[in-house]
Amino acid sequence: MAPPLRVGTEVQRLGVVVAVAALVIVVINVGRLSYSAFVTLPAEDELRVGLLALEDSQDAVMGTDSLLRGYLATRDPYFVAQAATRAPEIAAAEGAMLANLDRPKVFPLVLDLVATQREWQSGWVGEIQSVDPGRVDEFVARGDVLMRDYREASTATRAALIELIEAQDAASRLIQRSAIVVTALVAGTALVVALRARRRLLAHVVAPVDGLLAAVRGIGEGRLTPPERVDGSAELVALRDGIAEMTVALRRQHEETAAQAERLQVRTDRLRTILIMTREIAGSLNTRYVIDATVQAAVAVTDGRVLLWLVLDDGTALELAHDSDRGTVSPMEQDCPLAVGVVGRSARYAQISRGDPAAGEDPAVAVPMVVGARVIGVVECWDSPDGEVDGQRLSSVEMLATLAGSAIEASRLHAATERLSEFDPLTQLANRRRLGVDLERAVTDAKRWSTPMSVIILDLDHFKELNDRYGHQQGDVVLQEVAAVLRAGVHDGATPYRWGGEEFAVLVPRGGADEAAALAERLRVRVEEDFRRGDKQLLTASFGVAGLPEHAGDGEALLSEADRALYSAKNAGRNRVHRAG
């Protein structure tokens, strides 16, 4: 007769098979990944970096060649200056090629490419400014020959590099496919062994386990009776005895659970209150709403009067923000200095503080609202008729204070961020982002009502020289003074904006180009007069004006036309107003 089956032995045998199969699969895949990570991928990365460097070098060389030919055609030094900016790109790309393309199959081609490139630089680029005007055609022909040699070397190098990359990709794919095949064979063998073990377990274990499961289901339904004896492996017999012991323990726990249910229900109600408050304030960025919701939740938890105090911006005192008995109170209706009284102590030392009625203090507990390492407010809870706020109720208030502090701080930061996103912090003028929103609205209204509107863009003349002479701090003062001139000089709904740097814009929603040009002239005179010191003129401004529908049909085109008019004014001598068109 065959020995009785032991579940542990069968499971151990199955575990060994699975573990060995898993180990083999892991070793194969770790080896494959390691080879890819430390051999294949670095090599491919170097080749691709080298290919990118080759393309960057070719782009820089071709750009430099085009610029220098422009110079030969026009003799404009601008082209030489622009070509000089490409030299670092060529050098960087050359260094990257030499550093990454040191493979035997491509390195000789890279050296040949670098040599032709340097021959082009020394034999053509370096002599560009010394070319006799009468020999330009000869010089261009020589450049054509050198550039042809460079292109041939570049094409040959790129072809060899791509061929090497494709070869490495093919080798990598072969390794990947081999690893997949071996993994599949190992997994298939393990699966066959596992299926055989499954059949044995089903035949010798499942039937006794069904009886135990029926007993467990009865226990789950409340019938706390021990299961009947089972015939099976030693493990199943031990399991039956364990279930019987568990049944006895469950009977005892049932009695204890009934006693704890009432206490848990009270705590659950408090946590539900906190959860509801958390959901309500999580999606709100309204500070007043967060304060009201926090006080209502604290009242529900403590069954007493609740006051919420907020620390003032200067940090010297707290102001009462909400009283559960009176509702929202006016700002600064009542305040409390730091370190004075139960609320002041809690705010000053960032800890829970309890009032001392014997010392004339209110019978209340103050819980600080701490965000990071900073106290932003205090929740003051008065003792209810049921007793002091302590234990679980105090823990719930602490949780409320933590959540409310973060929500209040988030709402404050949101309000501050919204303002910063639309206003320039230096001049306090609306910024370019706000101009885009206002301009779109003004264009829509102008088209709807068939009324004209205009845009003015102004630039401070020689502002960089003023910055260099007097310093950037004084330059910031000048920008603030110009902003003040614009605020004082606009009217009839016109709005000034900080366009960027030393440029400003004025949106004229009700007025055509004529009215805008007149306004721009008044502003120009104001700037000229305000920045004149005796016979010395410190600063002037140039203005560009464009109107809709006279010069453009949408906001973006309107700004573009005004900017073009501005540069026309600067090119015409500065300190003047030019209209578009």
UniProtKB/TrEMBL annotation:
Keywords: Membrane, Nucleotidyltransferase, Transferase, Transmembrane, Transmembrane helix. Pfam families: GAF_3, GGDEF. This is Diguanylate cyclase domain-containing protein. It comes from Actinomycetospora rhizophila. The chain crosses the membrane at residues 12-31. Gene3D superfamilies: 3.30.450.40, 3.30.70.270. Residues 451-581 form the GGDEF domain. PANTHER family: DIGUANYLATE CYCLASE DGCM-RELATED, REGULATORY COMPONENTS OF SENSORY TRANSDUCTION SYSTEM. PROSITE patterns: GGDEF, HAMP. Its EC number is 2.7.7.65. GO terms for molecular function: diguanylate cyclase activity. Residues 203-255 form the HAMP domain.
